[in-house]
């Protein structure tokens, strides 16, 4: 029977309640040039995509000049950091879950569509970086989610098979990437669903199903 040996987490909406921070920060940058993403479009179309991809889509669909991409991206990162400094803090449910899983011998990793500096800042402020064996950003891969490259890379780096890994995801693009990697999935609705009880239940559920199949 194959046992779960590692848990790979997404970041935004999973370990950090940062969806609104990214949304607000990008709009702050876009509004410098008279553009804006509506809340509806954010939730339905843009959620979970890297900023670079969002800007490419805005150029195609709304005529955002491509020459502005670099500046808007830079301003978005600055505004995001301001939100992180003001709002990001540790959550007990995450501290307990990750420390408990680590003590039980599970490997822990993170795969996020965010850039490296944002991952390090957020996980540092949330006091979660110390639990991770490693983290992967969108700068560590050539294709972002929904492509499974970031999870395939994480699984390979862990030295494990996909069926030995559980991926924790919340949005459609991340879920597609997780499933395409061949790993098991725990879908969550909010950061508060990411707790030891839910993760332990999903691991037990997977391993029980494998025992029955064997």
Give a structural overview.
- The chain is α/β, with parallel strands linked by helices.
- The chain is 52% helix and 10% strand.
- Helix 1 crosses helix 4 (69-87).
- The longest helix is centred in the middle third of the chain and has 19 residues, at 69-87.
Features of this protein?
214 residues; 5 strands; alpha/beta; five-stranded parallel beta sheet; 9 helices; 10% strand; single chain
In which order are the strands of the major sheet placed?
3-2-1-4-5
The proportion of strand residues reads 5-15%
Considering DSSP H and I runs of 4 or more, what fraction of the residues is helical?
40-55%
Q: Determine the oligomeric state from the structure.
A: single chain
Unreliable segments (pLDDT under 50, ≥5 consecutive)? none
List the helices and strands and how they pair.
Blueprint: E1 6-9, H1 19-30, H2 39-46, H3 51-62, H4 69-87, H5 92-103, E2 107-111, H6 116-125, E3 134-136, H7 149-158, E4 165-169, H8 172-181, E5 184-187, H9 196-213
Helix pairs in contact: 1-4, 4-6
Task: Quickly describe the structure.
Strands 3-2-1-4-5 form a 5-stranded parallel sheet, with helices on both faces.
């Amino acid at each position: 029977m194959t046992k779960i040996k590692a848990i790979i987490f997404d970041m935004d909406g999973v370990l950090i309640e940062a969806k609104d921070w990214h949304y607000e920060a990008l709009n702050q940058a876009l509004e410098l040039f008279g553009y804006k993403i509506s809340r509806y479009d954010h939730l339905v179309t843009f959620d979970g995509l890297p900023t670079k991809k969002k800007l490419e889509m805005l150029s195609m669909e709304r005529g955002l000049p491509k020459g502005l991409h670099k500046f808007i991206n830079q301003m978005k990162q600055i505004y995001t950091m301001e939100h992180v400094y003001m709002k990001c803090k540790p959550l007990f449910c995450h501290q307990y879950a990750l420390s408990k899983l680590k003590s039980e011998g599970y490997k822990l990793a993170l795969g996020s569509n965010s850039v490296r500096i944002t991952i390090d800042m957020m996980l540092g402020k949330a006091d979660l970086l110390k639990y991770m064996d490693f983290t992967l950003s969108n700068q560590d891969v050539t294709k972002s989610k929904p492509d499974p490259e970031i999870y395939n890379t994480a699984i390979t780096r862990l030295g494990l098979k996909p069926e030995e890994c559980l991926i924790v995801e919340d949005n459609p693009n991340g879920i597609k990437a997780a499933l395409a990697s061949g790993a098991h999935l725990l879908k969550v609705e909010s950061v508060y669903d990411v707790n030891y009880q839910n993760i332990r239940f999903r691991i037990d559920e997977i391993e029980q199903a494998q025992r029955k199949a064997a």
